[in-house]
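[step 3/7] fold_predict: job queued, chain A
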Amino acid sequence: MFGLFESKPVLEQSQSQWLFDVYAWSLDNFDANVFYNNTVLVLPTNEFFPGRVDSQQGMAELVFEKVKSYACISHWPTSVVDQSVCAIPNAPQIEVDGALRNPNALVDNSVADELRLQIPYNPEQVSNPEGMIASFAHISAHYLGQMAKQPPPGGPEFWPHVTEVLASYLGFGLMFANSAYTFKGSCASCYNPHANRNAYLSEQQSVYSLAIFAVLKNIPNKEVAPHLKGHLRGFYKRAVKEVKAREQDLAMLNQQQFLKA
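[step 4/7] structure written:
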């Protein structure tokens, strides 16, 4: 009776704990110091993604170069290719000279095309910038995640979900939350299913992952909530409140920046 008015967890305990575990894995494998000192919350605004070009290929390249910059992987040799002629390999062994993530690394433009990572893009997503940004961030996380020293929480069957959380860890959580679900309306003239991305985390899971990021980075709600879809803002604020209450889990994540120093 006395628990009648207690608030329910915003996610099932197993789901929220798994998200914390993936953040712990990310911090342990992908430079906690870069996360705390250099990683920013990427906003879906013209300030974060300035410029415009006339071709779909040009727009894709422009967007991906910014994604690389915010993910601190600008030094990776890459080539953006229309997905009709490129597919992500199932499990290639990727090697990067030096640090995996380095905000100050120089770009080596001398790498031959055949040695560059092929980054596929969907031309239809040019009309859906958030979806394109999230897709590029997910592909980047896919490659980055393969270079982890330890297997991720949950095993191989959860790989697509893990890499979405990893992309949120890289700073792109807003785009994942906003593009996790797209209403499939019946208006054939305004709905383009090909412009959407394939999402693996639910909206709630993506928002909770974003909340963990914001709490770890001490980002106030007023800098995050206005950029979320309207129906997600209340859930986000409740998720932030719950994350802040999980002091033991946060302490374990925060100590990573000192262990890796």
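[step 5/7] annotate
The beta strands are 78-82, 117-121.
The chain has one domain: 13-259.
exit 0
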